[in-house]
Amino acid sequence: MSDSSSQSPPDVSTVKVRRPLIALTWLWVGAPLAYGLYELIRKATQLFTG
């Protein structure tokens, strides 16, 4: 079987350092996605309501 000591959990300080990076990455992807969905809904309503 595999050695479980090689799969130790990440250090707490490493997780705290990466947390802002993860948040920034979500914003980097989420903001354009949210804007694109907003524009899609806005244009679809214009298309179907006239």
Describe this structure in words.
It is a single chain. The longest helix is centred in the middle third of the chain and has 38 residues, at 12-49. The protein has 50 residues and is mainly alpha-helical. The protein is built from 1 helix and no strands. It has one helix at residues 12-49. Helix content is 76%, strand content 0%.
Fold topology:
Elements: H1 12-49
What's the quick description here?
By secondary structure, the protein is mainly α. The chain has one helix at 12-49.
Radius of gyration: 21 Å
Number of strands: 0
Q: In one word, what is the shape?
A: rod-shaped
Order of helices and strands: H
> How would a crystallographer describe the biggest sheet?
none
Proportion of helical residues: over 70%
Short key terms for the protein model shown above:
50 residues, mainly alpha, 0% strand, rod-shaped
